[in-house]
Amino acid sequence: MGKPKLLLADDHAILLEGLTRLLEPEFEVIGKAEDGRALLKISDTLKPDVIITDISMPQLNGIEAVRKLRKKDSRTKVIILSMHADVELARQALRLGASGYVLKHSAAESLSKAIHQVLKGRVYVSPRISVDVLATVQQPSSHPERPAVVLTQREREVLQLVSEGRTIRGIGNILGIASRTVVFHKSNNMEKLGIRTTAELTRYAFQCDLLAAKEPVFSHPTVPATRATHA
Fold first, then answer.
1. Which residues contact 77 (CB under 8 A, 6 or more apart)?
2. What is the pLDDT of residues 110-154, one digit of tens each?
């Protein structure tokens, strides 16, 4: 029996290469994608056994990619890779059909184990948050829906980029505005939404499907979107 086939998705090329080196001795990396829409397209073509995707990517976030894969009745297992130790985000990912949620800081130690677990039909969550996530995944969300809030176009642009994990400086470069202006718009978002942290901003963007729009809120330069490899 051949090695399990993996599709990796992250908008940072260096991380993609690092994951490939980490996993290739044990698994076969058959494809890579650098945005969410490319992930869906490559998955349809290559039919991997497991997809490992960053939660924050341009055009389509990892959680929404899981939702779309499940709508297609895809049998591919999906592991979300995230820097956010956020129980609500992890729970949402599992509810929508992900089989695993792995924190980036522990990927080197736990990603291989996570892949083997999901291939056996089990759920894997990083130990740091697993107790809280698995204890509540069958319960309704304890967070009430937020009231509708009107954001300006620029505030939506900043919110999207923050949710993609971009830095203040990087957002300024993409939008062509000063860093202090980015901070101003980010602060406006947090005040309007009653949010205190960047993790909560990210969660809000996912919950209101800001990053799941059919077209990006705006265009910004990225590295080439797809790069597939074959054995």
1. 49, 50, 51, 99, 100, 118, 119
2. 999 999 999 999 999 998 888 777 766 555 544 444 445 677 878
Distance from the Cα of residue 54 to its chain's centroid: 4
82, 110 contact by CB (below 8 A): no
Q: What is the rounded distance in angstroms from the CA atom of residue 87 to the CA atom of residue 83? A: 12
Whole-prediction pTM:
0.66
- Phi/psi at 7 (5° precision): -120, 125
Q: Where are the beta strands (DSSP E) in 45-139?
A: 50-54, 77-82, 100-103, 124-125
Q: How far apart are CA 159 and CA 4, in angstroms?
A: 37
- Alpha-carbon gap, residue 189 to 149, rounded angstroms: 9
- Report the pLDDT value the prediction gives residue 135, as an integer from 0 to 100: 67
- Residue labelled with tokens 């994608």: 33
Report whether 115 contacts 50 (CB < 8 A): yes
Q: How much is the pLDDT for 217?
A: 38
User: What confidence score (pLDDT) does residue 214 get?
Assistant: 34
At residue 220, what are phi and psi to the nearest 5 degrees?
-145, 150
Reference 4, options 47, 42, 63, 40; nearest CA is 47
| Residues of the chain with confidence (pLDDT) below 50 | 141-147, 211-231
Can you say how many angstroms the Cα of residue 208 is from the centroid of all Cα atoms in its chain? Answer: 15
Domains of the chain: 5-136 (3.40.50.2300), 153-207 (1.10.10.10)
